[in-house]
Amino acid sequence: MTRTARTTTILSIVSSCVVPFAGELLAAADTGLSSPIPAFARKYKTSCSTCHAAAPKLNVLGEAFRLNGYRFPENDALLRKEQPVPLGAEPWKELWPRAIWPGELPAIPPVSLRVVSDVRVTNDDMADYSWTYLFPNEIYALAGGTLGESIGFFVEAEWTQDEGIEVIQAKIPFQDPLPFLPDRSFNLWVGKQNLYLLTLGQRQIDRAERQRLLWGDYAISELVLRDPSTGDSLRSLNDLELRFSQPGIEINGIVSRRAYYALGVTQGSTDFAADNNDRKDFYYKLRYKLGGLALDGAYDPGGEPVLGTGGQLFDRSLIIEQFGYFGTFPVANDLEDKHHTLGIAARWLNGPLDLGAGYAWGQNDNPWGLSPAQQSTHWSAFLKSEYFFFPWLLGSLKVEHLETDVPEAVRAAGFTEGALYQSRFLPGAVALIRQNVRLVIEAELYSGDSVSGETGTQVPDNLWFRLDIAF
Amino acid sequence: MVGGLAALLVGPGGLCGQGGAVSGLVRVSNALSRGAVVYLISESANPLPPAAEAVLLDQRNLSFVPRTLLVPPGQEVAFRNSDPLLHNVFSPDYQGEDFNLGTYPSGESRTHVFKRPGTHVILCHIHPEMEAYVFVNPARFHSVVDDDGLFLIENIPEGEYTLHVWHPRAVAYRRAVRIGANNWLRLDIQLERRRAGGRN
Q1: Distance, CA of A281 to CA of A387 (rounded, Å)
Q2: Which residues of B touch A94 (CB under 8 A)?
Q3: How far is Cα B143 from Cα A275, in angstroms, rounded to an integer?
C-alpha cells in the first residue's frame, strides 16, 4: 500500500468512527468528557470510540495506536488538534549532533482520572448475602502522550481499597530508535510496564469486565496446602503473578505488517524496590493477525473498516498469540524456585463478536524450597466471548478452569488439602451510559472449587455492580 | 489579506486590471500549508531585482514574523529583535551561505544580504523552537501561502509559465500553466509530505 493510500485509510477510520456520533460526542470531546483516557481525547479532539470498543477495551485501531507508542500509525501530526509546545524547530534535526534533537511537550497536562465504585454481593458461609459498598473502590490517574516524533509515555497510578497507592505503569516507548531498520520493526520500551502476555483477557487491553483470568492471577504462594490431621500448612514464598506490571526493558516490533514480537527482561518481582535475587526474568510474546486491520494500523489493498450500526470500529480477523515467561524466585536460603509459564490463545473478531480461547501451562521447579526439590505444575484453559448487542451494550461470558498438580512426595507428607482446582464462569454486561460512564454487572460463579487450605472454606460466589467514570 | 484571498476563491472574477491571475489552495497531506511559496518562472519574465531598502524579518513573541519570506538574490534582510529579551539569529550552511548575526538585545536590528538562491533556514540559538525560512528566488511573480492555505498572484503577463510550490515539509511541486490575458486560473494543489529526519 502506498503511503498516500495508507494515510487516507487512517484518516477515514478516524472520521468514520467519529462522524456517527459527531454532534454529541465531539461536543463532549471539547469539554474533555468523552474518553476514559481523556488525555488522548483532548489531544485529538475525538471520542473514545475511535480507539475503544467499550472503554477501556481497545478496538483494533486502539491497539495499533498503543503498539505505535501512543500515536496514530500514520499522520499523527495531522490528526492532532492540540498543538504541542515545541522544544526545538524541525531544522535542528539537520544540525544534529551539533545540537539537541528537537522534541515537544503536550500543550495541556495529559492527565486524566478514572474513578471506579463497586457494589459486591457475596454469598458465603458467613452471611447468606452480604452487600458491600466500595465507594470508591479504585481511582486511577492516567497520563499518556508523546514527546516528539519517536518517544512516548504512559503512566498509570492506582489507588485501591485493598492495596493503597501503587504505580501500575510508568513506561517510555522509544519507537524506531535504529532508523536503518524498517519502520516499526524495532522499538524499545523502558519502565514499569504491564507485560500484556496475551491480549485476550489482559489488564487494560481488555478490562471491559471486572475480573481477570485465573492464569494471570495465579501465584504459587496462594496455594496453601494443609495437612488435615495436624493443621500444619505449607506455603511458597514465590508470589509472582503474571498479571502484575514489572520494571523492565522490552524490545518489540511489527514484521511484515501482521506479525508482532516482543522480548523482555524484567525484575521478576513487584514487591521489592531492589531486586531480591541475582537473576532477571525473561519473556517473549508472539502474535500473528490474519485479516482485518493489520497491526501497523493499515488495511490491505481492498480492505476497509467494518463499522457497527452505531459507528463502532469492528474487525474481521483471527489473532493467534503465544507467550513464554521464565523466572527465578528465591524461596529459602540458597534455594530458588525456577519457574516458567507458556500460553497460547486464538481470538476471532467478527463484527460485534469477540471470541477467544486459550491455554496456559506453568511449572515451578521448587516452590517450597524443599530438598530434594519438589516440582509443581499448573494449567488453565479459558474461553471468553464478548458481543455488542447494541452500540452501548456489551455482553460477556468467561469460562475457565485452573488446576494445580502437587507432587506425590508432598501429598505423602500429609499436605493433601488446598485450592488445587477452580472452575468458574463469569457472565456479565457493560452498559455505556455515556462514552466515559460505564455500568458493569458481572457474576463470579464457581462451579467447581476445592477447599482452600488456608480458610477451610470454598471461594464464595460474587455479584459485582460497577460504576466507572473517567474525566 | 486573508479575507481578500478567501473572497477571491468564492467570488466571481473581475480582479485583473491587466494580465492574468492565478490563485488557489495549497495543502500538504490534507493539512493547510501555511508558509508555502508559490511562484511562476518563465523565460521571458525579467528577474526581480533586490529592493533598495532592507526587508524586515521581525522577532516578536518568541517567533520569527513572517515565518516565510521570499526575496530575490542580493536582497538585504533586517532581523529586528522586538522582544523584551535577547535573541540570536543564525543560518546553518545549507546553501553555502551560513551566517551568525550574534546575540543582541531588544530593539536592535542586524542585517544580512542573501546572495545564493535557495532555502535559508533561520534559527535562534537561545530559543530552538523559533524557525523561519528565507526563500531566495528571483521570481517576479510569487505569493506566500497564508494561514488558510490560500495564495494569489496577480497582474501576470500572458504567456507560458512553470508554476512552482515550495514548502519546508513537502516535496517540491511544479506544473506548467498558461496564463491568458484577463484570465483567472484557480488551482487546488496537493503536496506530498517530505520525510526529513523521521516520521511526523
Answers
A1: 36
A2: 92, 94, 196-197
A3: 64
Task: Name the minimum distance, in Å, from the CA of A87 to any CA of chain B.
Answer: 5
Contact call for residues B143 and B126 (beta carbons, < 8 A): no
**CA nearest to B33 within chain A:** A78
Which residues of chain A lie closer than 8 angstroms to B31, CB-CB? 77-78
Cell numbers of A72, please?
A: 496514530
CA atoms within 13 A on the CB side of A243: 17
pLDDT digits (tens, 9 = 90+) for B38-50: 999 998 878 899 9
Interface of A with B in 76-115 (CB under 8 A): 76-78, 85-95, 99-100, 102
**Searching chain B, which residue's CA lies closest to the CA of residue A76?**
B200
Grid cell for residue B82: 522586538
Q: Give the whole-angstrom CA distance, residue A428 versus residue A433.
A: 16
| The amino acid at A120 | R
Q: Give the residue on A whose Cα is nearest the Cα of B169.
A: A90
CA distance A167 to chain B (A): 31
What confidence score (pLDDT) does residue A24 get? Answer: 32
The answer to whether B198 faces chain A, any CB pair under 8 Å, is yes
Cα B90 to Cα A215, A233, B82, B93: the distances in Å are: 61, 76, 17, 10
Which pLDDT band, with edges at 50, 70 and 90, does B198 fall under? very low
Portion 91-150 of B in contact with A at CB < 8 A? 92, 94, 121, 123, 128-131
DSSP A178-199: STTSPTTS-EEEEEEE---S-S
Report yes or no: B30 at the A interface, CB cutoff 8 Å.
yes
Contact A142, A155 (CB under 8 A): yes
pTM of the prediction? 0.83
Q: How far apart are CA B132 and CA B144, in angstroms?
A: 13
Torsion of CA A184, A73, A110, B124, to 10 degrees: 80
Phi/psi at A347 (5° precision): -135, 125
Cβ neighbours of residue A140 under 8 Å, at least 6 residues apart?
A113, A114, A115, A116, A156, A157, A158, A159, A168
Nearest to A360 by CA among A340, A390, A376, A374: A340
Number of C-beta neighbours around residue A457 at 10 A: 12
Between CA A138 and CA A37 the distance in angstroms is 15
Please give the helix or strand (H or E) that residue A326 lies within, else none.
Answer: strand A316-332
Q: What residues contact residue A50 under an 8 Å CB cut-off, 6+ apart?
A: A13, A14, A17, A18, A44, A61, A62, A313
Interface confidence: ipTM more than 0.85: no
A363 touches chain B (CB under 8 A): no
Q: Is A95 helix (H, G, I), strand (E, B) or coil?
A: helix
Would you give per-residue pLDDT tens digits along chain A (471 residues)? Answer: 444 444 445 555 555 544 333 333 223 333 222 234 678 888 888 888 888 888 888 889 999 999 999 999 877 877 788 888 999 998 888 888 888 899 999 988 899 999 999 999 988 766 678 899 999 999 999 999 999 889 999 999 999 988 899 998 999 999 999 989 999 999 999 999 989 899 886 655 445 556 688 999 899 998 888 888 898 989 998 989 998 889 999 999 999 999 999 999 998 875 656 676 778 999 999 999 999 999 999 999 988 889 888 778 999 999 999 999 999 998 888 889 999 999 999 999 999 999 999 999 999 999 999 989 999 999 999 999 999 999 999 999 999 999 999 999 999 999 988 888 899 999 999 999 998 999 999 998 888 777 665 566 677 888 999 999 999
